[in-house]
Design a protein that fits this description.
mainly alpha
């Protein structure tokens, strides 16, 4: 123990930094997770985040992301998310891995990841990066899993899409309520 250091200070400092580190890891995992949701359904993630901020589950007050908790943001993202869930059932919808839909998912994942980190006083940049990366994983992973299930189970895409909708909504609610 260093000279002049009160007994127990070093273990306490180490313990405090470990708790902070685990908290950061947890928040960053949530940011990546909400990105995965955005990869599955690009507008479900921001709808869930805006509702969580509006209900006070996420504290975005004082940050430039506070607009996400406004009644207007809740209304807009909710309507768009419902529209996306309906549009996903249409045959002419472009693949989520096409450049424009993928970019939208990355942007929404980044926005939502940054919101979760802002609420926990963690790095917005890391949150946005993890949300964006999660959205790419969700987009490509969700596409491949959906395609594989339709093929292997020999069922209509609609059934798998509805199940995917439920997973995206449930996961988003779980993540924003932590």
């Amino acid at each position: 123990m260093p000279a002049g250091c009160p007994r127990g200070l070093i273990p306490r400092l180490l313990s405090d930094s470990m708790v902070f580190s685990m908290n950061s890891i947890s928040v960053y995992a949530l940011a990546g997770g909400i990105g995965i949701v955005a990869g599955l359904r690009s507008l479900t993630a921001p709808a869930a985040v805006s509702w969580a901020a509006h209900l006070g589950w996420l504290n975005l007050r004082g940050s430039f992301l506070s607009f996400m908790g406004s009644t207007l943001a809740v209304a807009i993202f909710s309507i768009l998310a419902i529209g996306e869930l309906i549009a996903d059932q249409l045959p002419k919808v472009p693949k989520r891995t096409a450049p424009a839909p993928l970019l939208a998912r990355i942007l929404m994942g980044g926005l939502c990841g940054a919101c979760l980190c802002a609420s926990a006083h963690q790095s917005l940049i890391i949150g946005a990066l993890l949300g964006g990366i999660g959205s790419v994983i969700g987009a490509f992973g969700g596409y491949e899993i959906r395609r594989g299930l339709v093929s292997k189970l020999n069922i209509k895409d609609t059934f798998v899409a509805l199940f995917e909708d439920l997973i995206a909504i449930g996961l988003a609610c779980f993540l924003v309520s932590r």
